[in-house]
Specification:
Order of helices and strands: EEHHEHHH
Number of helices: 5
CATH superfamily: GIY-YIG endonuclease
Number of strands: 3
Largest sheet: 3 strands, antiparallel
Oligomer: single chain
Helix content: 40-55%
Structural class: alpha+beta
Number of domains: 1
Strand order of the largest sheet: 2-1-3
Radius of gyration: 12 Å
CATH topology: GIY-YIG endonuclease
């Protein structure tokens, strides 16, 4: 079963949230619609700006923990590498 690590934001170079999920379209929808209480709802993080697939949930969670300890600059560089305009990737999931 594959799993995902993803980043949500409120705008280009805005607030970042790093998470992991098995069902990325469902999880991204929850963030977009404000169904998920907490950080993403409080800061209005509706844009899926980064996602990477992993072979297992354990691998995805380990990567999530690693990314959470990265400096912000590294996370922004990672997003810019794959999504330089910070487009919302949600529509590409469905």
């Amino acid at each position: 079963m594959s799993a995902w690590v993803y980043m949500m934001s409120n705008k280009r170079n805005g607030v970042l949230y790093v998470g992991s999920a098995i069902d990325l379209p469902r999880r991204a929808w929850e963030h977009r619609e404000g169904v998920a209480e907490g950080f993403t709802k409080r800061y209005g993080l509706r844009l899926l700006v980064y996602a990477e697939e992993h072979p297992t949930l354990l691998a995805a969670r380990q990567r999530e923990m690693n990314l959470k300890h990265w400096p912000r600059r590294w996370k922004v560089q990672l997003i810019h590498r794959d999504n330089p305009f910070w487009d919302d990737l949600y529509d590409r999931l469905t």
